[in-house]
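Exercise 3.2. Students should predict the tertiary structure of the chain below and write it as structure tokens, then compare their answer with the key that follows.

Predict this chain's 3D structure.
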Amino acid sequence: MLGLRGSVPPDAGLITQAVAEIVSILAEEGVAGLPLGVDIAETPMLLALQAADIEVRDAQQVMLDARLIKSADEISLLSTAAAMVDGVYQDITEALKRASGERDRRPRQQTALRDGSDDVEAINAVSGERCNPHPHNFTDRLIRPGDQVYFDIIQSFNGYRTCYYRTFAVGRSTPAQRDAYTKAREWIDAAIELVKPGTTTDQIARIWPAAQDFGFPTEMDAFGLQFGHGLGLGLHERPIISRLTSLANPVELVEGMVFALETYCPATDGRSAARIEEEVVVTADGPAVLTLFPAEELFVTNKY
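Answer key:
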């Protein structure tokens, strides 16, 4: 990524120099003229490699396949990363007992960093009327009593990532909020129950509601809401589980896969919604859940 996402202009010559070095190394290793696998690169780099008569192949697929099955050590790191987020959610429940804003992330970041996080990438906070439809960011909105609010903690421990949603009601909850949460919980529990070696991703995707069933015209519009994605050194690895892709291109689950399952249900009040996410390991005996902060029912903080 020598161009720093285009900030360094091609005329500076860094990319040209790098391609010349690559050509030299290929010749020294006796593989000049063979295809070159590249997993991530900027467009000017790809164009410069092709201009040097190097056949570029997509190595991203190879790298993702190599990371598909996690070792025991990797699963331990992912479990530790999830445990750190357990602690962050405990702090969030305390923060929601007083006036707080979606942007009030500093205490949560400090908790994660104190516990050993090497990168707190995002703490997405979504509350009140912003819950429906679902954005993926936070604002200056104040979180108030009666709001439904969900968070997504994205951070890493020794490079191993988390993606971990939890939903809360502040002070009190309404029937519409509780009903939405119950549905989201039913959908994710049904998915977790299917997790075992030999299950295919289309089997999981089929038990989730179609896009039109929860207010979206197409599966593309609803992509990422009823969703599963691999976790590891990347936030989105294989397997991907979605009605958009899995029905036609299913993948078989294998022992050692680790992925997040996430569901979303808008409430009938037109403003609230529930979002739940669990990180799951495929074991010979079925699913092992890494995300342990209580989520069996809607958590009401500072209950009146």
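Discussion points: The chain has two domains: 10-66, 72-301. The first helix runs from residue 14 to 28.
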